[in-house]
Every structure is written in structure tokens, then in C-alpha cells.
Amino acid sequence: MHRLTLLVYGGFQILDATGPAAVFEVAGMVGAPYRVALASMSGGPTRSSGGIVVETETWAGSASADTVIVPGAGHLRGPTSDDAFLRAIRDSVAEGRRVASVCTGAFLLAAAGVLDGRRAATHWSAVPDLKREHPGVDVDAESIFLEDRGVWTSAGVTAGIDLALALVGRDHGEETARKVAQLLVVYHRRPGTQSQHSALLDLVTPDNRFAPLLAWARSHLDKPLSVERLAEEAHLSVRQFTRAFTEVTGMPPAKAIERLRFEAARSAIEAGEASMELVARRSGFGNAERMRRSFVRLGGLPPVASRSAARRRSACC
Length: 317
Hints:
Layout: E1 2-7, H1 14-29, E2 34-40, E3 44-47, E4 53-58, E5 67-70, H2 77-80, H3 83-94, E6 98-101, H4 105-111, E7 119-121, H5 127-133, E8 138-140, E9 145-148, E10 151-154, H6 159-172, H7 174-184, H8 199-203, H9 211-218, H10 227-234, H11 238-249, H12 253-270, H13 276-282, H14 288-299, H15 303-316
Helix pairs in contact: 1-6, 1-7, 6-7, 10-11, 12-14
């Protein structure tokens, strides 16, 4: 049985640990058992950042784990100065164990020196700090998760679930990972190199008055979304709407809708969903040729290239 340890510390983000733990628990239900342990250096009750206290075993009792996962936290001053904690990470990598981090847990791996010369992912908001504090790390600002020579890193919180599904897929095959995702009612599974950012999130800033409209448009991409229809939904005249929307988002409405359609179609294609024609209809392009032209214009590659690249990534990750 594969032994997996979640190595936590005071102030850890609880979903960074419990999200992956749930994946491995459900994997056992479909015939892919893991022995999952929650450990800290000294064992005993350990308080998470949200105030929930969990019981942990000692690291000494879990040090023989096959996989070690380190969650992140809002502040990492304590763990990054804990020589024993960092040594545990270094020893795990040196001894050939699979080591992974979730979110800002990458800072702990970096502090232990195991990310020097490796590519690593972390939460998009922490990318500048990771680059500045650990210049020897090749920080990937986009990926949801990635692996470099046995060390796995991932972006924020829910990306830990994507990482855990990838680990299950590596250990037991993609069909098992798919079954786990279905039981958890989560997307199976976002490609590791899918961007953390979306066109919708790029456009929606805290002061964006059109955030509700964009959210509405994202859920109606299979319908005609003319400027007139958008203006009607925004309760503005076409002229007022076009001027205000362009000022707020930096692009005219038609371009914003095309970006949203492109993003939705790319996600479906990378996940291997349906035929190109069906994806084109569902995302509002109407037909595969119109979708192809948009992909080349916005992404530089046709849809078939996106699907091929996703398959290659799935085979290696």
C-alpha cells in the first residue's frame, strides 16, 4: 500500500491538506488504497490557519512515507526557520520519496533547497515573492501544477485537488483518477499547464461594474451574445454600454466575448471532451472553422494542437 504523509505545521491552510486527503481517501473506495497520515514534527494537536485543530502523529513515525505533501499557509515565518522541518523535506527528496507542495507550500520546499534548478508552481499572487526570495527556482507563473524530477508543486488551494488526482493517475491510471473525480464531483481534471488565470478573471476587477454581466455571459456562451443583447442585459443603450464597457475592461464587448468563448473551448478541448464541432457549438463559435480561426488569432495554435499538447502532458504527468 502506498504510504502518504501530509506534513503540517502551526498555521497551515487546512484545505491545502484536506483537499488532497479526500482524493486519496476516495481512491481507496475505488480499489486504489493509500495509507494517509497527518504528521507534524513533534506530533499532537496542530492548529490550522482557520482555527481548526487537528491531531497529528510525529514526523519520525511517518518518515518512511512514499509521498510527502506540504501544504501552504498565509504566513510561513515559523516553518521556514525550522531546521528540523526543512531537513525532513531535504531528506525525503534525497531518499527518493515523491515530494509535493500545495499553494505557498512551495516556499517551504524552496527554503529546504529542493527547488533550486527546478521548475515550480505556486499561487499566482505569491509568484513575485517566490522569485525574489528564491532566485534559484524556475518559477512558473501560470501552471496549476507541475512536476520536475520527482518534485511536484501546485497553485492555490483547490489546485491541490488537481495535483492529487494527477498523483492517483500516475499511480493507478487515468481511469481510476477519473472515477475518483466523479465521486468527488470535481472536474477531471484540469491539465497541469492550464493557466491559473482566466479571461473572465482578467476582466473582472473589484471595481468592475460589468462583473455580473461577464459572469452571466460566461454561462450563456452557447447563445447569441450581440452587443445589443449585452447592452439590454446591462440596462444601457448600445452606445452607452459600448463606451463604458470598453473604458472599464480595455476592450470592446465583441472582443471580450470572443476571449470568453476561446477560454471555454480550450478548457473543453484540453480535457478531451466531445468533438471539435460540438465544442464549437457549446462555446458559441457556431462551427469548428470559426473556432479554429479564433484559436490561431488568440492563442497562436489551432484547436487540434491544444488537444495534442494536453494528451502529451497527460501522458507524462
